[in-house]
Specification:
The protein has 292 residues and is an alpha+beta fold. The protein is built from 15 helices and five strands. A hairpin with a 5-residue loop joins strand 1 and strand 2. The radius of gyration is 24 Å and the shape is elongated.
Length: 292
């Protein structure tokens, strides 16, 4: 992944997704490009065609906030994508030093208090991930939901590349779409991060769907959602997912699942916990009462 012109790449990708009729231009006549033409974007944003061309080509890296907001309006970006665009513009204006950076600090460690917390949860599957979906800590009940909830696993890779994950997740298409958009949002303007480059490169080579989704430049924040699984042991189960930022770390997130108390999903979660719980060692009294 080449992040030397992240702002231009984003503008071009989003321009191709806007239909002329969406912005009142009509769709008559033969069009040789997808979406809007560069000159149409420039006209609607109130800037010159030459200036917009320089932005897309990376020859102008200092767009004003007003220009970025005008482009966001023309490209029909929501609040999250607009914030992402503004971040790209600020990073581009910051000069080459940021773009040339190839190292990040050492990976954040999960605080011991968080490890103790999730290990003590016997009714709530939970794990900790970084902003690239690498799992850094997990409790046994989460692993019971999927063996890919395991330390060292990248959840985005498994969802795209592991056939078992596709069978497990009835919402696989929506899950993959959200995952790519969230990854881009979490990465922000730091598109040259080595871990991001490695992950995007691997998935781009091995997954056509990832390539298509990554090329869209969709951006979404990481929010809680309903996790739907077709589990091989307990069948269909739905859990609420909550994502909590871990304070004092470099973007670590604690993901916790729970079911509504008294619901069928809560019963299934308890059943899953009982199926995967380690065997309890027999007490001395039990040994004495066992016939010889």
């Amino acid at each position: 992944m080449d992040g030397s012109n992240a702002l231009g790449d984003f503008l071009r990708a989003r321009r191709e997704l806007v239909r002329p009729e969406d912005v009142g231009l009509g769709s008559g006549g033969l069009r040789r490009v997808r979406g809007l033409r560069r000159e149409e974007v420039a006209l609607l944003a109130g800037i010159s065609s030459d200036y917009y061309l320089r932005l897309e080509q990376g020859r102008d890296r200092s767009p004003s906030l007003q220009v970025l907001e005008a482009l966001a309006r023309v490209l029909r970006l929501d609040a999250d994508a607009t914030a992402y665009l503004i971040g790209l513009g600020r990073a581009a204006a910051g000069g080459r030093a940021r773009a040339a950076r190839t190292r990040r600090p050492a990976p954040a460690r999960v605080p011991a208090s968080i490890l103790q917390l999730i290990e003590g949860w016997t009714d709530n599957p939970a794990y900790v991930q970084n902003r690239f979906f690498d799992v850094l800590a997990v409790n046994p009940l989460a692993t019971a939901l999927s063996p890919n909830y395991a330390v060292g696993v990248n959840l985005l890779e498994t969802i795209f590349l592991d056939p078992a994950e596709r069978e497990l997740r009835p919402d696989w298409e929506a899950t993959t779409e959200d995952g790519v958009a969230i990854l881009r949002g979490l990465a922000g303007p730091d598109v040259n991060d080595p871990r991001l480059t490695e992950l995007v490169g691997e998935l781009s080579v091995r997954s056509e769907r990832f390539r298509q989704l990554w090329a869209r430049h969709d951006v979404r924040p990481q929010r809680g959602h309903i996790l739907r699984l077709t589990h091989p042991q307990v069948g269909d189960i739905e859990l609420q997912s909550n994502k909590l930022a871990v304070g004092g770390t470099d973007g670590l997130v604690l993901v916790v699942f729970h079911a509504e108390p008294g619901s069928r999903n809560a019963e299934l979660l308890r059943l899953l916990g009982s199926l995967t719980a380690p065997a309890r060692p027999a007490s001395r009294d039990e040994h004495r009462s066992t016939p010889s």
